[in-house]
Amino acid sequence: MSNSHETPASHPLPSFQATYSLGPDSPLSMPAVGLGTFQVKEQAGYEAVKAAIKVGYTHIDTASVYRNEAAVGRAIRESNVPRHELFLTTKLAPKDQGAGKAYASLCRSLSELGLDYVDLYLIHWPAASGLKHDDPLNRIRRHESYVELQQGVREGKIKNLGVSNFEIRHLTALLADPAVTYPPSVNQVECHPLYPQIQLREYCRKHGILIQAYSSLGQGKQDLLAHPVVTSTATKRGMTPAQVLLRWALQQGIPVLPKTTNTMRMTENLGALNKELQNEDMHALNGLDESLYRKFAWDPCQVF
């Protein structure tokens, strides 16, 4: 997929919002900044979610493969915040893809969380465990999974159904499947100035699918956080490099999921909601040298 930073002139980028609608059929809105919990397990996960809610987060993201659903659910239940005021995402593991497995995995996640429903449930990865990336069975397994998970929507166990790490061809095939009666509301993908996903974002915009970004901070790697354009912008605008990167996404209508267990950084990340980049800053960040483009997380481009 091309990642050209040129944006079609006929389709201006979405603007910043504090919450994002998940479509005309959903009563829910997604808060723009959520807490990611990848690699944050057990007691650390519990403490992180508890602290995040205390400083003002209302959006928490977890997954079956993170192995922290029990800790996340416990922190939510003990927060004394009404359940309907919190937005929770979890995800189907690649090992649980396929007919007869996906719905059962959803039910296990709800049991681990100790909750009756999730606000967003995603197919975490377009490939199934045990299959090579070029195996055509991958498409069959993810379609079986998606169709089966629609039962969870009908039963109220899933408020919104979506996908993660799906490329344009994966989405096109899914949307063309007549058995798909609840089109995906979200596609959660890696997205930042060194991997801006322009074509995928435009495709999702046209099809009413909200792009949500993970690895907005490049997983803490200095390639992104210490990039001269990022650091100079931070200095100029009185922001931290992390806030610059988060605000870059937010000002283009992309909700974010920065991960941290540090309460001070949680507050700092949430503070990106109250910052603003100027047009010249956005132009500079959208014009980074394409020869430096890179992904920091797993790459779905070769998945059939």
From TrEMBL:
Family stated for the protein in its record: Belongs to the aldo/keto reductase family.
Lineage: Eukaryota, Sar, Stramenopiles, Ochrophyta, Eustigmatophyceae
InterPro entries reported in the protein's UniProt record: AKR, Aldo/ket_reductase_CS, NAD(P)_OxRdtase_dom_sf, NADP_OxRdtase_dom
Entry GO MF terms: oxidoreductase activity, acting on the CH-OH group of donors, NAD or NADP as acceptor
Record-linked PANTHER family: 2,5-DIKETO-D-GLUCONIC ACID REDUCTASE (PTHR43827), NADP-DEPENDENT OXIDOREDUCTASE DOMAIN-CONTAINING PROTEIN (PTHR43827:SF3)
Pfam families the record matches: Aldo_ket_red (PF00248)
Active site: 66 (proton donor)
Keywords from the UniProt entry: NADP, Oxidoreductase
Protein name, entry field: Aldo keto reductase
Top-level division of the source organism's lineage: Eukaryota
